[in-house]
Every structure is written in structure tokens, then in C-alpha cells.
Amino acid sequence: MASLKPLLELQRVDTALAQLKHRLATLEERTNLTAATTLLNSFNKELVSVTAQLKVTQQDIESLEIDNKKRESSIAKYLQQLKTIIAPREAEALQHEIAMATAERSANDDKELALLEVAEQFDRQQLELNNQILKQNEVIEQAKRALASAIEQCEQSKLELEAKRITMSAIIDPELIKLYDLKKNKRTTPAVADLHKATCQSCHLDLSTVELSALKKCPEDVIPECPNCDCYLVV
Ligand SMILES: [Zn+2]
Q: Which of 50, 112, 155, 191 could form a disulfide with 183 if both were Cys (CB 3.0 to 4.6 A apart)?
């Protein structure tokens, strides 16, 4: 029976490499960075919306102010006219115009006051969002550094494992490695395993006493295989 122990070690390195590949693909640090970026995007989107609303409010305030300037100049004009008018009916008409313009100006003032409050609120929101964006950018920078460091760690482990694999492969019969590769490529569980008592460490099923003793009597030119999952077994 050929010794499969070096091949089992090789399998362990390959398992570690596969786990590393999976870890690299599912790094928590990458998920964190994505979540942080999503949050930043939502802050930016909100900022755009608040800024647009603030602009509209400011434009409304400006229009009211322009309108009030017109009213004021009308009032001033009417007051001037009032000084030169003698006919009571005309004076009455002018006074009516002045009263109307004054009422409109006052209504505009009320609207402006309300809009100023709204604008102030948008201003506060804008400030708050800018702060949040600033902080979130820091969070993202940190997340990027964490991800880069995790990737570097994985790459380092990968290099170490690959070097180990080369050293190990050198002491194993190339024909055996070929057989192992064939078997490995056809399955997701380990292609080589040992037994813990009667349990195959690839499929985790128990072998019967008869199966065990048959395996132990395996001739030199036959590679022992698990009767359940067909993996090579170190017995
Ligand atoms: Zn098995």
C-alpha cells in the first residue's frame, strides 16, 4: 500500500488555499466598505435635494422682496400724488390704492417670514449633511485601509501556501499527483482524507469493520479509497 501521508498534507494545503480564496471573495471588510459607500451616496443624494429646495425657497424670498419694493415705491408715489390732489374722490381712490398696497406688502412680509424659517431649516439640514458626509468620508477611508490590509494578509498567506505546495509536491510521485488532481477536480470535498477511528474525514461517514479490514489488506499497487465517497484514504 502506497503511503498517502504526503498527499494528505498536499490536500490540506489545497483545502487551505480554497478556504483562502473563499475568504478573499467574501471579505467582511469589503462588505463594510460597500455599506459605508452606500450610506455616503444616500447622504449626497439628500444633500442635492435639500440644496435644491433651499434654492427654491431663497428664490421665493427674493421674489417677495422684489414685489415688496414695487409696492413700496407705489405707496411712495401715491403719497406724493396725494399731496397735490384736491378732489376728495381722487384722494379717496388714492387712499384705497395705498391701503391695498400696504395690505399686500404686509401679506408678503408674513409669507417671507414663514419662508425664512423654512430656509433656516434647510440651512441646518445642509450643514448637518455636510458634517455627516465629512465623517462618512473618513469612515470610507478607514474601511478602504482595512480592506487593503485584509487583502494583503490573504495574498501573503496565499504566497506562503503556494510555496509550501511546491515543496510538498516535489516529494510526491508525479503520477500520484495526477491521479489526485483528477479526483480533486471532480469533487468539492477533500480528495484525500484520513480516518478518525472508523470515520472518513472527507464524507464523515463511518466505515464498517469489514470495509476497514479490507482497506488495511489493500495491495501495494492499489490506492485505498473510501467505499462511501471514493476519496483516497490514509489507513
Ligand atoms: Zn468518505
A: 191
Crossing angle (nearest 10°) for helices 28-84 and 88-170: 170
Q: Specify the 3-state DSSP secondary structure of 195.
A: strand
Q: What is the CA radius of gyration of the chain?
A: 41
pLDDT per residue over 167-185, tens digit each?
999 999 999 999 999 999 9
State the distance from the centre of ligand 1 to the C-alpha of 218, rounded, in angstroms.
Answer: 16
Q: What is the pTM of this model?
A: 0.76
Ligand 1 centroid to residue 217 C-alpha, Å: 18
Report the DSSP beta bridge partners of residue 194. Answer: 234
- Give the burial string for 106-141 (b: 16+ CB within 10 Å, else e): eebeebbeebeeebeebeebbeebeebbeebeebbe
Q: Do 54 and 71 belong together in one domain? A: yes
pLDDT (tens digit per residue) in 129-158: 999 999 999 999 999 999 999 999 999 999
Report residue 209 as a C-alpha cell: 469493520
- Cα 206 to ligand 1 centre (Å): 8
What's the CA-to-centroid distance between 19 and ligand 1, angstroms? 20
The CATH number assigned to the domain holding 65 equals 1.10.287.1490
Q: Which residues surround ligand 1, an ion (CB under 5 A)?
A: 200, 202-203, 226, 228-229
How much distance in Å is there from the Cα of 167 to the middle of ligand 1? 27
Please indicate, yes or no, whether residues 189 and 217 belong to a single structural domain of this protein: yes
Residues 227 and 211: beta-carbon distance below 8 Å: yes
149 and 210 inside one domain: no
Question: Could you tell me the distance, in angstroms and rounded to a whole number, from the CA of residue 195 to the centre of ligand 1?
Answer: 9
